[in-house]
Write a structure and sequence with these properties.
270 residues; 34% helix; binds S-adenosylmethionine; Rossmann fold; 20% strand; 7-stranded mixed beta sheet
């Protein structure tokens, strides 16, 4: 059984209740065909802090929200660069001076990686298939824009959010007049491995809501058909399922390893 309960307090000033209820219905519809071994009971909180999601079976569970102004995320922004980790995997160290790299984050999630890329100067289109995750992201954008510094608002202005399935979006862009992204970034859900305790709480909650990617191979192939320069696949453990093609190279190590597939070289644009 999959169920999300709504817990709306008086001080919530966002979407009307009918819209929130419709959201829960459409999220449930996405799960109607999926046989789940475990019962999933989540709670969508709508309160003064905006929208957040919580494990309804665990009263001590912290709520997960999209918070672009979160101190840990802000620290990550201050310590991320074009020549390391995600920035290097995307190819920002190879792009021509002044070139604004257009990245499609095809699996947006909580929008953290997309924020890092926008902070590094990229234009980022975020695709999110889940109605609830999309609503959490939209809520994060709205709070980030109203409470963020002018610098943060400028970063957020480089990000665009779309409620879409990546496969459908990629198929539409593969047409001759679609605008092809420079790089496509994939960070799909994988079955949790290793000790459960090591899985971050936010990610464990996303697993409950979203399950794991069933056919990563076809998503990767669709992305490879469309990306001008690269497709970057995040694999925290640095390993790929055997059915996937080998990448051109890897950037980073556990817990932030990226498999990089190269369609053409950034340096060919210089
Ligand atoms: C692991 S999370 C991504 C986390 C993200 N990189 C971040 O920094 O917060 C994966 C997300 O991709 C979304 N997703 C998976 N397959 C998708 C698809 N085919 N189209 C759009 N979104 C998808 C899931 O709903 C989930 O929210």
């Amino acid at each position: 059984m999959f169920k999300v309960l709504l817990h709306k307090s008086e001080d919530y000033q966002g979407l009307p209740e009918a819209t929130l209820q419709a959201l829960l219905k459409s999220e449930a519809a996405c799960h109607a065909d999926h046989d789940s071994a475990a019962d999933v009971l989540l709670r969508l909180n709508a309160d003064a802090g905006g929208l957040s999601l919580q494990n309804a079976n665990d009263p001590r569970a912290t709520a997960t929200r999209v918070d672009f102004l979160d101190a840990t995320l802000q620290y990550r922004l201050r310590t991320s660069g074009k020549r390391q980790g995600l920035g290097k995997a995307i190819g920002l160290d190879k792009a021509a001076t002044g070139q604004q790299v257009f990245v499609v984050d095809a699996t947006a999630g909580l929008g953290r990686d997309a924020l890092v890329l926008a902070h590094l100067g990229c234009r980022v289109l975020l695709l999110e298939q889940s109605p609830l995750m999309h609503a959490l992201l939209a809520d994060g954008f709205s709070r980030g824009n109203s409470e963020g510094t002018p610098h943060m608002r400028a970063v957020l202005a480089r990000m665009q959010l779309l409620h879409a399935d990546a496969r459908q979006w990629l198929a539409s862009v593969a047409s001759p007049d679609g605008e092809r992204p420079d790089v496509i970034y994939l960070d799909p859900m994988f079955p949790p491995r290793g000790k459960q305790a090591k899985v971050k709480k936010d990610i464990a909650l996303l697993h409950q809501l979203l399950g794991s990617e069933a056919d990563l191979g076809s998503l990767l192939q669709a992305a490879l058909k469309v990306a001008r320069y690269r497709v970057v696949l995040k694999r925290p453990d640095g390993k790929l399922p055997p059915e996937l093609p080998a990448p051109a190279f890897w950037i980073g190590d556990k817990p932030a390893a990226f498999a990089v597939y190269v369609n053409s070289s950034f340096s060919s644009t210089r």
